């Protein structure tokens, strides 16, 4: 059997409310506030954008750009520094213990471990410097010298699959397991899919 025909086994997981027990978007904001109290002024705005998103008045991409206005004027280096400190504080205590164990088993079987999250890569990346996995995809942003703008599409649904395929460089693959806190494309594509609610893992 030719090696180029080998199908790569992949395990895909979502970050927020899944591997990480909380929402990094909200927690990272609280963390920034603890460091820079004057950023509280963005809170009202964030509640407003969350509301607009709920009533479908804005797209996910637009929502992310506006929600993350609290990072305005922080250079990417500064955000990464804060993020590294934030994750050091959160990991491993606020992560799903069962998943940590399962990931370790899959790593030992040479399964590719991939995280696909709607979170911004900018602040998610330092987590994976701390906890090594094969690859991850998040929403990409570009710093314009003042504010962060989403590049391409927010990393949701179909886009997560596109990003996974990009990462695997066109190689054949099977998603043998997937974990998320909401019904989404990665679960439908997986051979074994699991939903996570308040840390409880149930078959999808």
TrEMBL record:
The keyword Hydrolase applies. The keyword Transcription does not apply. InterPro entries: HAD-like_sf, HAD_sf. One of its GO terms (molecular function) is hydrolase activity. Keywords: Hydrolase. It holds the Pfam family HAD. Gene3D superfamilies: HAD superfamily/HAD-like, SG protein - dephosphorylation function. This is Haloacid dehalogenase-like hydrolase. It comes from Antarcticibacterium arcticum.
């Amino acid at each position: 059997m030719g090696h180029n025909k080998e199908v790569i086994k992949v395990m895909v997981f979502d970050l927020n409310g899944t591997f990480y027990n909380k929402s990094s978007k909200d927690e990272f904001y609280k963390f920034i506030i603890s460091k820079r109290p004057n950023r509280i002024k963005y809170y009202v705005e964030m509640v407003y954008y969350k509301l607009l998103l709920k009533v479908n008045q804005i797209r996910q991409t637009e929502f992310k750009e506006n929600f993350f206005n609290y990072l305005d004027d922080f250079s990417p280096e500064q955000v990464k520094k804060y993020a590294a400190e934030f994750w050091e504080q959160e990991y491993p205590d606020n992560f799903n213990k069962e998943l940590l164990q399962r990931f370790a088993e899959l790593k030992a079987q040479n399964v590719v471990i991939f995280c696909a999250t709607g979170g911004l890569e900018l602040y998610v990346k330092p987590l994976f410097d701390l906890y090594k996995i094969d690859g991850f995809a998040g929403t990409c942003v570009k710093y314009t010298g003042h504010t962060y703008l989403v590049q391409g599409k927010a990393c949701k649904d179909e886009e997560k699959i596109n990003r996974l395929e990009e990462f695997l460089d066109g190689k054949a693959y099977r998603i043998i397991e997937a974990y998320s806190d909401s019904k989404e494309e990665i679960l439908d594509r997986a051979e074994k899919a699991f939903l996570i609610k308040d840390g409880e893992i149930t078959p999808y």
